Amino acid sequence: MSALIIDGKQISADIRGEMVNEVAELKQKGVTPGLAVILVGEDAASKVYVGSKEKACVQLGMYSEVHRMAADSSEEQVLALIDKLNNQDSINGILVQLPLPKHINEKAIIDAIRVDKDVDGFHPESVGNLVIGDDSLLPCTPAGVIELIKRSGVDIAGKHAVVIGRSNIVGKPVAMLLLRENATVTICHSRTANLEEIAKQADILVVAIGRANAIDSKFVKPGAVVVDVGINRLDTGKLAGDANFESCKTVAGHITPVPGGVGPMTITMLMKNTITAAKKANGM
Ligand code: GUN
Fold first, then answer.
1. Is residue 209 within 6 Å of ligand 1 at its C-beta?
2. Contact yes or no for 85/35 (Cβ under 8 A)
3. How far apart are CA 70 and CA 135, in angstroms?
4. Catalytic: 97?
5. If 92 and its partner were Cys, which of 174, 177, 251, 277 is the partner (CB 3.0–4.6 Å)?
6. pLDDT digits (tens, 9 = 90+) for 229-284
7. Concatenated DSSP letters for 50-71?
8. Active-site residue 120, yes or no?
């Protein structure tokens, strides 16, 4: 048996196709969703991500501002820019690219972003709203995971979902979203005893460990949906997920590849959040 491959590139393209139309309709009504991205310093990977976000905005017909700041910018300078963008009507979403230079307090920066413009979903109030079940902007990668599962025709309600990883940006929010979709959710982490045994009970296995090929077919129940959030650069230069794709696909029912699975969804969900924020700001 070989698993069905969940094509994140295709699903992402489908959603962007839907959003092109939605943005065009909004613009006819005088609303142009606007995203501001702040990049501090010269981190190579961050530059690539920020470029992709800008390109995605332009392709969808949205308004985009990228603020590139020197690596030695002070925390006060970044906070002053956030304050300006918080009060700028043409901007519906604000994203500060992480990681920030060490002398800047990441928490102070995230806390300063207006909750209704928090398109990363990292603000404590956004996190709280997610947990309570109130309306909020959802963190992009976790929202992308849910969208991939749903658009693969998999019902989440009543399923046992096991999330491996408990980070604030993936593990915890993805577990909350699965719970909201009425899954029975188990969160595993580096201190979990009997990881293999627990993972093997999962109908839906979300892997967000941050270590290449940490999970193989021994961890997968036959027919399970495996969603791999990991992106690791191997010594060979190739990208690998946290799950060993070749091994897991012999047992899984559905599986996301790396690259081409969860990755393409993150920016797509960022665009979706920006549209959602724009509609809300205009009482739509
Ligand atoms: N750096 C890597 N991924 C992300 C992300 O999703 N949001 C932000 N702000 N920074 C990142």
1. no
2. no
3. 35
4. yes
5. 277
6. 999 999 999 999 999 999 999 999 999 999 999 999 999 999 999 999 999 999 99
7. HHHHHHHHHHHT-EEEEEEE-T
8. yes
